[in-house]
Design brief:
There is one protein chain. It contains six helices and six strands, in the order E-H-E-E-E-E-E-H-H-H-H-H. With about 200 residues, it is of the alpha+beta class. It has two domains: about 100 residues, no CATH class; about 80 residues, no CATH class. It has a six-stranded mixed β-sheet, covered by helices on one side. The protein starts with a strand and ends in a 22-residue tail after the last helix.
């Protein structure tokens, strides 16, 4: 679970930890803690500190367990970050990378919710939920592969809509997306599918 510091809730983090899940958060500037152990950090990685800490402030009772505190300086921007996590096995660089990639993960799930209609789960069992998520991920990966394979220079959302509009047409990808980047779709085409029922 990767969350921004605005959503810091130590009681919730205790629930996650007791459920066997790990989290990565940004440490708030007013967090009160005590350093229990300093761990070695890899050189030239951007990681400046890797510590085991315990909360000592007024919220210490909400999370009575040890936490890991990772300090990281982004080599591209020079900006400094401090993360807290309950994962003691991953490398400190991996912890920093997980948080850094959170926006891409959020964009990915927002795209899925908007385009692949996974706002509501069809079933309630764990198997039904996982099946729906797997089918959605497979559809997403197929679209990415399709875009890569044909060198289509459009965003995934636009490609998804084009394929929806041309789902029952027998045509090549070049007919859907022309070489100069103009889109062909059935909404602007006067030719419609007609059914001859005799």
């Amino acid at each position: 679970m990767v969350v921004d510091r605005a959503y810091t809730d130590y009681s919730w983090f205790r629930t996650l930890r007791n459920s066997g899940l790990f989290f990565v958060i940004r440490q708030k500037s007013n967090a009160v803690y005590e350093v229990k152990e300093h761990r070695p950090v890899p050189r030239r990685s951007g990681v400046t500190a890797d510590q085991i800490v315990s909360l000592t402030g007024p919220k210490a009772a909400s999370y009575p367990y040890l936490l890991r505190r990772v300090c990281y300086t982004d080599p591209e921007t020079g900006k400094k970050y401090v993360y807290l996590t309950n994962n003691f096995r991953l490398s400190p660089q991996t912890i920093a990378d997980i948080y850094k990639k959170r926006w891409q993960i959020e964009i990915f799930f927002r795209w899925i919710k908007q385009n692949l209609k996974i706002k509501v789960f069809i079933g309630n069992s764990a198997n039904a939920v996982m099946t729906q998520i797997y089918v959605t991920l497979i559809a997403y990966l197929l679209l990415c592969y399709f875009k890569f394979l044909f060198g289509v220079n459009v965003v995934l959302q636009e490609l998804f809509r084009l394929l929806q509009l041309n789902l029952f047409r027998k045509c090549s990808i070049q007919e859907i997306v022309s070489p100069d980047g103009h889109y062909l779709n059935l909404t602007n085409n006067s030719r419609q599918l007609t059914f001859n029922i005799a």
